[in-house]
Design goal:
Shape: globular
Largest sheet: 8 strands, antiparallel
Strand content: 25-35%
Pfam family, one: AAA_21
GO molecular function: ATP binding; ATP hydrolysis activity
Keywords: DNA damage, SOS response
Radius of gyration: 22 Å
Strand order of the largest sheet: 2-1-4-5-6-7-8-9
Protein name: AAA family ATPase
Number of helices: 10
Number of strands: 18
Organism: Streptomyces triculaminicus
Amino acid sequence: MITTLAIENYRSLRRLVVPLDRLNVVTGANGTGKSSLYRALRLLAEAARGGAVAALAREGGLPSTLWAGHEKPVHGTGGGEPAGLRLGFAGTDFGYAVDFGHPIPDRSLFDLDPEVKRECTWTGPVLRPATLLCDRSGPAVRTRTADGGWHRTVNALRPYDSMLSELADPQLAPDLLRLRELIRSWRFYDHVRTDAHAPARSAQVGTRTPVLSHDGSDLAAALETIREIGDGQALDDAVDAAFPGSRVETDSHGGRFELRLRQRGLLRPLGAGELSDGTLRYLLWAAALLTPRPPALLVLNEPEASLHPDLLPPLADLILTAAGHTQIVVVTHAPELAAELARNSARHRLDLNSITLVKDASAQTVVAGREGLLDEPLWYWPKR
């Protein structure tokens, strides 16, 4: 489980070090940095797939993503570290930090691609020399061996590659491989489509689907998988709690699956194309949260979108049920959803970690009630 998340110089997040628990709810007014926190977590996940540099380039490169407020660090000036975007986390088993910096000027057209300047993994909650497992500085990497020594590799990495994606070897770096697979298990759901042409409204080829796809196209197969190899009773209870007397079904025609919702008082079930946006979105959340294959981390961005207020209590119950099997971060604009989660967390024997983001006088995002360094978890960035 992740116990600390650290972000530095990403958009409005000049420096943010926050503790995480099993269930975390991120709230705040518009423009306080909730989306930046969500996107920073996604960038961390992209690092394990070798896609973080490309993702940053799509955002306009470092000039568009670095902290834009007062006292912005300037690359190449004295008096401190060069400008860079730093992301990291620490947990019960591993910690990881990566530092992206400006590329060295040359004649390449890829001048929006940031470079990985420093990258480290370690054991335990805090980076220390004694806990280092892998240490990358520029193209050189050193990996701790079983006898406590170091295996050094020169020019092992290109500046746009992560050691998580390139050096996770079961013989040379088994801990790095474990960390990479842990991060790759993280799941993110953000504004899954429910419009008239959404993939979830159409019949799709059905195969066993323990993990709902990011676009929800395999919704019918995912719900049927929950019914057959997961917690079918929890699915029935979740649907009945949201739509009393209703039950979700799956029709199969020539191997193509289509969702049906049977409702009290109707002579026939409704197809996915007939459902309201809110009804379809709730069923998408049910499929994501009742997954038979829980991830290490599940991050939900604005799950309340398009939902009627009456659906927020059953959605909160779905989230709380899922938090019994996986760590969850919910980024929400809805105080009602946050209140429902807080009100019922004790019933599920969970401690809710509430993270309310606000802007200080310098337009920097901080956590309300934790403005000082003494209010943060202990955290050290690797130096360049």
